[in-house]
């Protein structure tokens, strides 16, 4: 009896000792973890209202995309699980913005909502004069009507489509002076939106200053993928333009995202606030147009802000003709209130850290999976190199469009083709123009999707990438419009 008791006592002691040892190891491990583990990325908002989205089956999606003539613009939003078609007007408003919607003053003239927006714009931009418009292209239409004549030249960094449209519509010409590094997707230049000062000076030397009403700096540069422009470059453009007596304007749709990149990447700005950086950038210009559907954090809106009173007076008449009276210009009072609040929020560091952090998080995941994308990733979108993801699909089969369709069928994600369909036909030969790159753009709506959605997108693309050898055919056109064909084109699979 005694002997047995002793044995079990020893056994118990050993057992207890093991537990103590084990607990100690766990304790040390945790201690190590506590010291070395960096807190992961997390959104700096929590969710107050939700919108249900339908997760369809592959079978349903194959049927829907066929019914849509293999054009993703023809899909109903209810047929899309994650919609990355654009970041324009697709974001979520905050509780404070919705509060402003109730405070909207709908008086025809001199509403308090107008005053609120004007004061916010003045404090963020430093420009005294202000005109609201219903969106970005409307601001372009109003201001360019006052500024651009036939035969004029407008240099800048890759002008946005509507901007170029409004320039060319007036029989003027946009000249792209972006640095060459912007067009190499593997070049890690931190400011791929920069203007090449030599190219710009060449324009200034070639044309008389009367023919150049302004130089346009787009921040961030949308056409090159949300790539930022450095403060140093903005300042240098100002100095060069001063030398030739030329005005500098901003197309400022993503000015806050640009300021974030300056803070993070450019020497000397780490300790400045986003509002200080944005204001310094605007101080080197004479005015701006903006689509508030981006960094204004609203679903619809835009405005013009100017330093020169005379130009503002000239633009006023066009605002009244095209948009509405000068104290609402195409926006209701509640929309102006929500925009004023949105501008305050989008120029907060924490908001931008979440916003751009999310795009970077997706970029890192894709790189981890070996999927070729434009580097460094821009502020609002990821560009996937479709020629590398689908190496066996011939160029004539619209490779980026094929990738967009495959990704939709695979995961219900809607991106947009930036490739041969968009590049359209040569006006003379009527043959397809093949651009240097075939890209699939995945644009991220603001404050709309979560990190789980990012993981889902990355896996959707990875699955396609893993099957890349098997995908060997694409699509052919069955009908197309004479201009801007990509919006309405009808396609069918190549047999
Ligand atoms: C979106 C955008 C525009 C046009 O604005 P809309 O609100 O869509 O009319 C102009 N310039 C840039 C850089 C843009 O991103």
Question: What's a quick, concise take on this entry?
Answer:
The protein is an alpha/beta fold and 495 residues long.
Secondary-structure blueprint:
Elements: H1 2-36, H2 58-67, E1 82-83, H3 95-103, H4 112-125, E2 129-133, H5 136-147, E3 153-156, H6 161-168, E4 173-176, H7 197-206, E5 215-218, H8 231-244, E6 248-251, H9 255-265, H10 274-283, E7 287-291, E8 302-306, H11 309-322, H12 333-346, H13 349-368, E9 381-385, H14 386-389, H15 399-411, E10 413-414, E11 416-418, H16 420-423, E12 439-443, H17 451-466, E13 475-479, E14 490-493
Parallel strand pairs: 1-10, 3-4, 5-6, 6-7
Antiparallel strand pairs: 2-8, 7-8, 9-12, 11-12, 13-14
Helix pairs in contact: 2-15, 3-12, 4-12, 5-6, 5-11, 7-8, 9-10, 13-17, 15-17
Modified residues (N6-(pyridoxal phosphate)lysine): 294
Keywords: Lyase, Pyridoxal phosphate
Organism: Balneicella halophila
How does this structure look, described?
- The termini are far apart.
- β3 (153-156), α6 (161-168) and β4 form a beta-alpha-beta unit.
- The protein is built from 17 helices and 14 strands.
- It has two domains: 58-87 and 350-493, Aspartate Aminotransferase, domain 1 (Alpha-Beta Complex), CATH 3.90.1150.10; 95-347, Type I PLP-dependent aspartate aminotransferase-like (Major domain) (Aspartate Aminotransferase, domain 2).
- It has 495 residues and is α/β, with parallel strands linked by helices.
- The protein is globular.
- It has a five-stranded mixed sheet, sandwiched between helices. The protein has a three-stranded antiparallel sheet with strand order 9-12-11. A two-stranded parallel ribbon has the order 1-10.
- Pyridoxal-5'-phosphate binds at residues 88, 135-137, 160, 162-163, 218, 222, 251, 253, 291, 293-294, 302.
- One of its GO terms (molecular function) is carbon-carbon lyase activity.
């Amino acid at each position: 009896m005694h002997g047995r008791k002793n044995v079990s006592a020893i056994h118990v002691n050993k057992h207890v000792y093991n537990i103590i040892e084990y607990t100690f190891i766990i304790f040390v491990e945790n201690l190590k973890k506590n010291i070395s583990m960096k807190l992961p990325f997390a959104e700096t908002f929590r969710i107050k209202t939700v919108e249900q989205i339908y997760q369809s089956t592959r079978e349903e999606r194959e049927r829907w995309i066929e019914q849509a003539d293999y054009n993703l613009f023809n899909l109903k939003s209810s047929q899309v699980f994650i919609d990355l078609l654009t970041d324009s007007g697709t974001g979520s408003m905050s509780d404070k913005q919705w509060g402003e919607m109730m405070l909207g003053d709908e008086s025809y003239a001199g509403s308090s909502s107008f005053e609120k927006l004007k004061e916010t714009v003045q404090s963020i931009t430093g420009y005294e004069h202000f005109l609201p418009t219903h969106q970005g292209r409307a601001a372009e239409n109003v201001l360019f009507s006052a500024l651009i004549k036939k035969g004029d030249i407008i240099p800048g960094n890759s002008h946005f489509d509507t901007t170029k449209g409004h320039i060319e519509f007036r029989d003027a010409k946009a000249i792209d002076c972006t640095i060459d590094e912007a067009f190499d997707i593997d070049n890690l230049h931190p400011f791929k939106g920069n203007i090449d000062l030599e190219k710009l000076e060449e324009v200034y030397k070639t044309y008389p200053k009367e023919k150049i009403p302004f130089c346009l700096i787009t921040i961030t540069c949308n056409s090159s993928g949300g790539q930022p422009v450095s403060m140093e470059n903005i300042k240098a453009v100002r100095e060069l333009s001063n030398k030739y007596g030329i005005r500098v304007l901003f197309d400022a749709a993503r000015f806050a995202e640009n300021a974030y990149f300056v803070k993070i990447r450019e020497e000397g700005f780490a300790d400045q606030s986003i509002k200080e950086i944005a204001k310094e950038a605007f101080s080197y210009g004479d005015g701006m147009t903006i689509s508030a559907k981006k960094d204004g954090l609203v679903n619809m809106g835009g405005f013009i802000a100017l330093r020169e009173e005379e130009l503002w007076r000239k633009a006023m008449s066009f605002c009244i003709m095209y948009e509405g009276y000068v104290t609402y210009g195409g926006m209701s009072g509640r929309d102006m209130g929500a925009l004023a609040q949105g501008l305050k929020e989008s120029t907060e560091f924490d908001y931008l850290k979440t916003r751009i952090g999310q795009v970077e998080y997706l970029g890192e995941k894709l790189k981890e999976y070996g999927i070729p994308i434009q580097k460094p990733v821009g502020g609002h979108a990821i560009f996937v190199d479709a020629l590398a993801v689908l190496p066996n699909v011939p160029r004539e089969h619209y490779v980026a469009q094929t990738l967009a369709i495959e990704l939709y069928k695979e995961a219900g994600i809607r991106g947009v083709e930036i490739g041969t369909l968009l590049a359209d036909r040569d006006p003379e030969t009527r043959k397809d123009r093949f651009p240097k790159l075939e890209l699939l753009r995945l644009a991220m709506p603001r404050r709309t999707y979560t990190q789980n959605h990012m993981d889902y997108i990355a896996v959707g693309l990875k699955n396609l990438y893993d099957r890349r050898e098997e995908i060997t055919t694409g699509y052919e056109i069955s009908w197309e419009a004479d201009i801007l064909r990509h919006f309405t084109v009808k396609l069918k699979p190549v047999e």
